[in-house]
Amino acid sequence: MRLFFALMSLSFSFALTAQNTAYWQQHVSYTMDIDMDVKNYQYHGKQSLIYTNNSPDVLDKVYYHLYFNAFQPGSEMDIRLQNIADPDGRMVDKTGTDENPVVTSRISKLTLGEIGFIKVNLLTQDGKNLKTKVAGTILEVQLATPINPGEKTTFEMDFLGQVPVQIRRSGRNNKEGVALSMAQWYPKMAEYDFEGWHANSYIAREFHGVWGDFDVTLHIDKKYIVGGSGYLQNGNEIGYGYEDEGVKVKRQKGKKLTWHFVAPNVHDFTWAADPKFQHDVLTAENDVKLHFLYKKKMDKEYVDNWKNLQPKTAELLAYYNKHIGDYPYKQYSVIQGGDGGMEYAMCTLVTGERSFGSLVGVVAHEMAHSWFQFVLATNESKHPWMDEGFTTYISNHAENEILNEGKENPLQGSYDGYFNLLGYGIEEPLTTQADAYHYNFAYGIGSYSKGSIFLSQLEYIIGKENVEKTLKKYYEDFKFKHPTPNDIKRTAEKVSGIQLDWYLNYWTQTKHTIDYEVAVSEGKNIKLTRLGGMPMPIDLQVMYEDGSIEGFYIPLTMMRGEKPTRASVLETWSWVAPSYEFSTTKTIKQVRIDVSGLMADKDLSNNVFPRQVEE
């Protein structure tokens, strides 16, 4: 396993050099020793962090995230929760009546023994004490010695943490009784990249982290079973299903067990623990070990769901390997915990008391994040639609195939959600920072629904096969590289030969909508009118009076190319022209815009001629 650790890091360095000599990113190497007290939910940690400055800049400061500090009355997360128009229902208590509801932040009511915190007792840089300042969930650190480009420095830290009552993602004793959901639990170095420092306060959204290696030793009550990121190094001393086949487990003496994990080439480390976990293991494609940790219960349906989930998870792994690219690690853990479903390095935490379809669905989504967030790793604070949207796109297609759902458009729910958002009139551009949305609803529909439509609608623009090729090339070219929106756009352009700057701009940087109208005059003259602010190429199906059908394709001038099509290709349509006309040689019976349904036209009633009257 140590050899695997070294090879992963080495191949990672070579890949960066070979793929893009202008590219750089920082590197971290964590070694942590954690002593957990399961009675008072506090843990003492020692952290050694080797930081490599691969940037061209001299750094005189660094910043750490102290995420658990968000779970305190008066924190920024608490204040935001009390002031946003539609607070997350998992984070508030509701009393009163339906007519006069009283909504209270759960964070605001935490007592000293229930809050979360990370207190840094000591921090040194290469043996020199450092001056630090805590600002909510951020630790600001003035360096004793600036870090020059290409240099390494070692930070040594002593810290104390307390696990908060489970409210959002992390915490103790979640609603299904899982003791410890340990996500974002350690002092974590903030990312520094070509845009500068990303020392964002933890308000409620998701994360951006530095690639590196983790070596984590955890001392915890020996009754507790642990699952999470990385590879367990001492399974034969632990047991609980981690031991090699046929080996007699020799546990350490004393009240605690020492668990030793290594996780190479990741940007986070997460674990969960409970004394009543059942641990199952299944070997899947490419010898990847799938671990399943869930509460032991007498409920037959619940147990059956978790057992039946396991081969479906193996099918999901194979689907994503085929349609995106090979999963680069040798283990993945599905763990009951948290407050719904959330992706982490080499694992996910999901609530498990669900129907079978819901359980497969949440695992399909969170597992897909392992490609789009934990291998590609876009900055979720700035571009949540790239992670959540692309994950929704691929996981919906995976579910449709693996569960034999038979949906003609697996993303129809995303289109419905987007049109619903338009109806409320509260949409914001996808360039909005994740925490800055005025409504959680607008964030959710924008990131998940409109973000997934970016890819499904791209099928309409450049063709389904080109989108399939784009995803594979995007993954291959940008894995372990924190890609930006321009990277997916440029990849699609290179694959298709079509220019797409207009598409990225309109769909993600504006609130312009798509709305086209078709009309016919004198039996053979077709007029298309663009009523919405966003231009699109047009697929048109014409049925003639003699029963024959002909397809027409009108590219946008600014595409500078055409998608593969069997339709008759007409002259391009400039975005400055509000209408477009052409004539057919035969008498028309019906005309329909976009029979695929992949273009997100907000008013379908005027997409067909003659107009169809609803009964």
Radius of gyration: 26 Å
First-to-last CA distance: 67 Å
CATH domain fold name of one domain: Immunoglobulin-like
Helix percentage range: 25-40%
CATH architecture of one domain: Sandwich
Q: What is the class of one domain in the CATH system?
A: Mainly Beta
Total strand segments = 33
The best one-word shape is: globular
| Main beta-sheet strand count, sense and barrel state | 8 strands, mixed
**Category from helices, strands and their pairing:** alpha+beta
Number of helices: 11
Assembly type of the chains comes to: single chain
- What portion of residues belong to β-strands? 25-35%
The average pLDDT is: 95
Low-confidence stretches at least 5 residues in length (pLDDT < 50)?
Answer: 1-21
Strand order of the largest sheet: 7-6-10-2-1-16-19-18
Question: How would you describe what is shown here?
Answer:
The protein is α+β, with helices and mostly antiparallel strands. Among the domains are: 24-210, Immunoglobulin-like (Sandwich), CATH 2.60.40; 408-509, no CATH class; 516-609. Helix content is 26%, strand content 31%. The strands form eight sheets. Strands 7-6-10-2-1-16-19-18 form an eight-stranded mixed sheet, covered by helices on one side. A five-stranded mixed sheet has the order 21-22-23-25-24, covered by helices on one side. Strand 8 (131-135) and strand 9 form a beta hairpin. Helix 4 crosses helix 6 and helix 9 packs across helix 10 (485-496).
In brief:
The protein is of the alpha+beta class and 615 residues long. It has 11 helices and 33 strands. Strands 7-6-10-2-1-16-19-18 form an 8-stranded mixed sheet, with helices on one face. Strands 21-22-23-25-24 form a 5-stranded mixed sheet, covered by helices on one side. A 5-stranded mixed sheet has the order 30-29-28-32-33, with no helix packed on it.
